[in-house]
Design a protein that fits this description.
Helix content: 25-40%
Number of strands: 6
Structural class: alpha/beta
CATH superfamily of the domain at 2-12 and 21-123: Phosphoglycerate mutase-like
Mean pLDDT: 96
Number of helices: 4
Radius of gyration: 15 Å
Largest sheet: 6 strands, mixed
Low-confidence stretches: none
Order of helices and strands: EHEHEHEHEE
CATH topology of the domain at 2-12 and 21-123: Rossmann fold
Amino acid sequence: MKQLLLVRHAKSSWANQDQDDFDRPLNDRGHRDAVMMAERLLDKKVIINQIISSTALRAITTAKYFAKSHGISEAAIVQHDFLYHAPKERYHKAIVQIPDVIETAAIFAHNPGITDFVNSLTNTRIDDMPTCAIFAITIDTTNWANWASANKTVWFVDWPKQA
């Protein structure tokens, strides 16, 4: 059994309207939410073994907060530029590269692709993944290369403003 967490980056700053979208940082709420959501995973006893992230600043910054709380070095974060505003098909490319020794992986990326991807996995539908939302599934496989054809079940869904 494998577990996959899909995390939309935390809230980004629009303070500099001239800034390139790729380079937008997190805003104050984004920093707070990333710390809070990483802690919520620990409260749920979720242990992340590998973190995979888009190379965009807001995604990698969010991923670093989760890495810190889970004792994963920043250098160990797998970064893929193809996850920046990726259509759902590109997530498959990242997942099949996960080593089979990894039990729980987390992917940090962007809307609208991440919402499209989570909606393709199970019968659960999300209208729009909020910033720093986590959509977690279990996958009935021992091999990441076979994840797409394996049975998938929603494990949990969480986001910063969830009561």
